[in-house]
Amino acid sequence: MNQYNQFDNYQQQNQINKMRESRSIEHQEQKISQQQRQQEENMHNQDMIDTMQNNMGNINQTANFQSQDEQTNKKEVINTNSLKLLVKFIDYLKVKGESDVNTLLLMQERLLYTASYLLERGANIHELHFDFKNETIQFVQKVNLKAMESGNVLGFDELINLLSRAIDMLLYKPIFSRIEPFSKVLDLRILCFNNLSCIYRQNKMYHDALKAVDRAIEMEEILVRENYGESNKNIASTYINKAVIMSELGLHLESIDTIKKALDNMESFRKEWEANLEEQDIFQLKYLSVIAYFNLAVEHEHLFYVQYAKTFYEIALNISRELNYGEMTKTIENVLKKMKKVPQVNKN
């Protein structure tokens, strides 16, 4: 029997996540005003860091994430002046760009916990003119992008710690309660758990990967029931990831059922948005369909249903050719050639 592994969807999931979140990030980064750019010329970086350290205590950039309770137990002065200084420094880092992304994430995290601490105690921070909701969303998105882009650079523990910082923030009520609608909180949590699952799978920790992806699916099913945004398309991507994990665990029948759920949700999305589908939506649906049908073929091969497997490979090949997806097209063509040459046990 000639069997193949399911198509590795780790990098593809990274690309899909980027497409899902890139518009939001671009929109938020465009909010940097000309006045903020002018601040770059007027600020003295070292003076600001020294002042921050005097007001808020030394910041250990290598320290692990600390909860709000741990932070507030420290003997440090937390007031609106400290918050104002953080806002200014973050504006400076945003203008500076990606060269200081680690410092930016650290400062954004500190800003959000400090702001939530003050808001819980009735402080008036409106005069600071920073958007708490968008700042939180931007932090979570940037953490996820960094985790996915740094998969070959950072170690496993560093990646898990990085994503945990975003997850912990989204589970901290004084922060997530200020993000409306709540469906947006779920959307961000889903992003985190999907990427967490990908990291576990890359490290062959399949049971942990399955737990993480199931957490994502639980929340996505809520969004599907509420008919929220592009939830049908998004959950299809997550089902495909789950199917790959189940295949690694030898659960081939379960993997087939999961892939069928992905295809059903893609079809629901296509019907619901048929009149308003954008070019990017059409591309993503076809892209996911190629992966789904290829993996469906692999699972049927594992179970010796060769004719079904051949049919699904051919469907995947046709869609791949439509997309001009050269790498995948070549892969499927090679698989079909080998199937013709090698005698197969056929259960059909």
Q: Count the helices. How many?
A: 16
Strand content: under 5%
Multimeric state? single chain
**Helix and strand run:** HHHHHHHHHHHHHHHH
The overall number of domains is 1
Rg from Cα: 23 Å
* Secondary-structure arrangement, i.e. CATH architecture: Alpha Horseshoe
The overall pLDDT average reads 79
What distance separates the N and C termini? Answer: 14 Å
Q: Under the CATH scheme, which class?
A: Mainly Alpha
Structural class category: mainly alpha
Shape: elongated
The main pleated sheet reads as: none
Low-confidence segments: 22-69, 71-77
* Total E-strand runs: 0
Proportion of helical residues: over 70%
The name CATH uses for the topology is Serine Threonine Protein Phosphatase 5, Tetratricopeptide repeat
Protein name: Tetratricopeptide repeat protein
Biased composition (Basic and acidic residues): 18-30
InterPro entries: TPR-like_helical_dom_sf, TPR_rpt
Region (Disordered): 1-42
Question: What does this molecule look like?
Answer:
- By secondary structure, this protein is mainly α.
- The chain has a single domain, classed as Serine Threonine Protein Phosphatase 5, Tetratricopeptide repeat.
- Helices cover 74% and strands 0% of the residues.
- It is built from 16 helices and no strands.
- The protein has helices spanning 10-29, 34-42, 45-56, 68-72, 80-96, 101-120, 132-149, 156-170, 173-176, 182-202, 206-225, 231-248, 252-272, 279-302, 306-323, 326-341.
- Helix 12 (231-248) runs antiparallel to helix 13.
- Residues 22-69 and 71-77 have low confidence and may be disordered.
- Residues 1-42 are annotated as: Disordered.
- Residues 18-30 have a biased composition (Basic and acidic residues).
- This is Tetratricopeptide repeat protein.
- InterPro entries: TPR-like_helical_dom_sf, TPR_rpt.
- It comes from Tetrahymena thermophila (strain SB210).
